Amino acid sequence: MKGKRIAAVLLSAAMLVSMAACSGGTANTSSAAANSQAAPSSADNTAKKLTIWAWDDTFNVKAANEAKEIYAKSNPDVTVNVVSMAQNDIVAKMNTAFESGNMDGMPNIVLIEDYRIQNYLKSYPGVLSDLSDITKTDKFMDYKLKIMTENNKVYGVPFDSGVACVFYRSDLIKQAGYKDSDMQSLTWDKFIEIGKAVKAKTGKAMINVDPNDLGIIRMMIQSAGKWYVDADGKADIANNAALKEALAIYKKMQTEGITVTSSGWDAGVAAVNDSKAATAVMGCWYASSIKKAADQSGKWAVAPFPKMSNVSGSVNSSNCGGASWYVIDKVPGKDTAKDFLSKTFASNTDLLDSLCKDISLVSTYKDTASGKNVNTPDAFFNNQPIYKDWNDWTKNIPAVNYGTSTYDIESKMTEAVQSIVKGSSIDDTLKNTQTEVEGILSAAG
Amino acid sequence: MNGNQFPADGQGKNQMWKTSDKVTHHTLEKKLNRWGWIFVSLSAVLISVFVFIPMVGALIMSFQTGKGVNAHFGGLTNYIRLFTDQTVGKALGNTFIYLIIQVPIMIVLALIISVLLNDDKLKGRTFFRIAIFLPCITSLVSYSLIMKNIFSNDGIFNQMLAHIGLSPILWTTDPFWAKVLIIISITWRWTGYNMVFYLSGMQGIEPSIYEAAEIDGANAVKKFTHMTIPLLKPIILFTTITSTIGTLQLFDEVQNITQGGPANGTVTISQYIYNLCFKYTPNFGYACAVAFIVVILIVILSMIQMKVGGKDNQ
C-alpha cells in the first residue's frame, strides 16, 4: 500500500509538472502582454549588425544572401547575418515574442507569409515598422500591397508572387489526344474532361490532392475574388457561391477518379516527380520542385490557372502563397534594416532580375518585367518564356482580404471537405462550418 | 519510511512526555524542524515559481478572449466555445480511441512478452529482451518519420501488399487507417518499455510458489492468470496509469506521422493546444481553456484507475 501511495504522489507530481510545462510558457506571456504597447525603445535606430530570418535555402534564403552581397558593396561597415529556419519555427517564435513583447533574440528583418500578416498587423500593432517611405505603392502589384496595408500605411516590402498556374506534362496530354492549345484559357470542366482522357489513355492521374492542404480550393476562390472571409474580415462560408462551386469541382475530380492522394508536402512532390500525376496546379514557386526530376526536362509546360465557368467574376488567374519582408520595430537597428530593404528588395531591379535566373523568382515589382532574365525562355519547360508568362498573369490576380485566421479556418475546412467528399450535402456542411468559423473570428475580436 | 527520518512526528512526541530530558529533546526537535523547513522551503519556492504561479496564470488567462493587444477578460467565453468547437470533440474522441484501444493492447502484449522472456530455458533471452526494449531508446521524431515512410501510400508496406496481390491501404490519407497507423506506431514504441517493468516485477516473485502450483497441477495459462497477473497488480496499475497519461499527452507521433490529418482525423488534444498557440493565429486564452480540460480529465481518469485497481489491497 505504501508503494501505491508513493506511486500516487509521484504520478500527481508528474501530472502537475507536465501540465505546467504546457501552461508555463503561456502564463509568462500574459504578464508581459501589457508591454507590447510600450513606446519604441531607445533613440539608437541604426546598427552595425543586421539579422534576417527566412525559411527556404533554395529560395528566399538564397535571395537574402544575394541582397546581402549587394548591400555590402555600398555599406561595407554593416554585417548582415542571414539565418535559415523552418517556417513553422519562425511563426512559433514570432507568436511568443509578439505576445510577450520581449523581442530578445528576434531578427531585424523577417519574412512572413502573406496569409499570416493580417493577424500580426491587427493583433500586435506597433510591433512591425511602418515601411511606407521605402515601399513605393506605384511600383508593386496591387493585390500584394493590399494585404500589408493597415490604416493607409504599408508595413512590408513585397517579395515573391505566388501566381497560380497549371504545370502540365505536355507528353501525357498529347497521348491523351489533346494539344497544348487545349490547355490555354482552361475552365475546370475542360480540365476534368482532359483528366478523364489522360486517365483512360495513360493510366495516370490528372492531379495530386492532399486532404490536409486545401491550396487548390484557396486558389479557386481567389480566382473569383473571394476568400474564407469577406472584405470586412467576417466569415464568408455558407453563402459563398465561389466556395461552393470550388468544393463541387474538388469533389467531382475525386469521384471521376482523376486524382491521386498523398499526405504531406514531400509525398505530393514525389507523386509529381514519379510521373503519377499529369499536372500540378500550384503557385509558380513550385517550379523548383518540378525541376527536381531532371529526366523530365522538356516534357513540362505551364498554362494559366483554370477558371470556374459557373461563377461570375472568376478569371484565369489566381495566387497561392507568397511572402514579404517585414522589419520588427523594437529590435535595435530598424533604420539600418529599412535602408537595407530600400536598397535591395524595394528598388534594385538588377538584384530582382538576377534572382529570376538564380531562384526562379517571380517578383511583384512592376519594373522587373523588362529585365533580361525575365524574358529568357526556360529549357526545362520546353523553351517556354515562363517568367514572362507568370509576370503577365500576376497582373490579373484578384485582390482579396486574407483576414487574420486563414490557417484556423483551413483546419475547419479540411473537416468540411472530407465530409463533402464522403457524400454530405455542401450546403449543410458549410452552414455548420460557418458557425465554427464565426467562433474562431469572434474569439480573435 | 518518512516517519523514521524525521522524529518530529507522533513517535517523537510520545517520547517527549515520558522522558525527563524534555528540554534538550525539545530543542533538538526544534533544530531538526528548522532545518527541515529550510530544506522544504527551497523546493517549495522553486515549485511555486515554476509550477504553481504559472498554473494560476494559465487559469486566469483561460478567461481571456481576443488576440494580442485585443485580449480582455471574457468570462466563460472560452469554456463555452469549447462545447461548440467540433475539433475539440474530434480531438477528445481520437485521444480516447487511442486510449481505449491502444493501452489494453499494449499492456497485454507487454505482459505476454515478459512472461515468455522470463523463461530461464529460453535461448537468446537477452537478445530478445534488448530487441524489444530497443524501440524505447529511439527518438520519438525519428521513429515517427520512419513509420511515416514505411506506411506512406507508396511505402514499403504497400509495396509488399502489392507483391502478394493485395490492394494498397491508404494509411496516411484515410481517417480510419491513419488512426490504426498511430496505434501501431505507439504500440511498437512503448511495449518494450512496459515489458521491462513486468520483467523486473517478476524477478520479485518467489519461484517456489510456481513450483507449488505445478505440483498442484496448474497449467501455464492458469499460472499466468491466477498467479502472475495478481502478483504483478501494483505494477500493472502503475503502467496503466503512466500509459494513460502518456496517451492523453500524445503529440510527437501524430505531429510527425500524419500532422493530425487527414482533416483532423488523428489530431490529439495536446496537438490541438499546440496548433492553437503556434500553428494557427495564436489564441493563448482558448488554448489554456482546452489545457484545463485535459487536467480535469487526467485527474478523473487517474482517480478511477486507483479506485478500480487498488480496491483489493485496501
Automatic annotation (TrEMBL), chain A:
Q: Which PROSITE patterns match?
A: PROKAR_LIPOPROTEIN
- Keyword match DNA repair: no
Is Nucleus found in the keyword set?
no
- The organism's place on the tree of life at top rank: Bacteria
The protein's UniProt keywords, in alphabetical order, are: Signal
Task: Give the residue range of the signal peptide.
Answer: 1-20
Q: What Pfam family does this protein match (any one)?
A: SBP_bac_8
InterPro entries associated with the record: Bact_solute-bd_prot1, SBP
What PANTHER family has UniProt attached to this entry? ARABINOSE-BINDING PROTEIN-RELATED (PTHR43649), SUGAR BINDING SECRETED PROTEIN (PTHR43649:SF32)
Q: What is this protein called?
A: Extracellular solute-binding protein
Q: What is the source species?
A: Caproiciproducens galactitolivorans
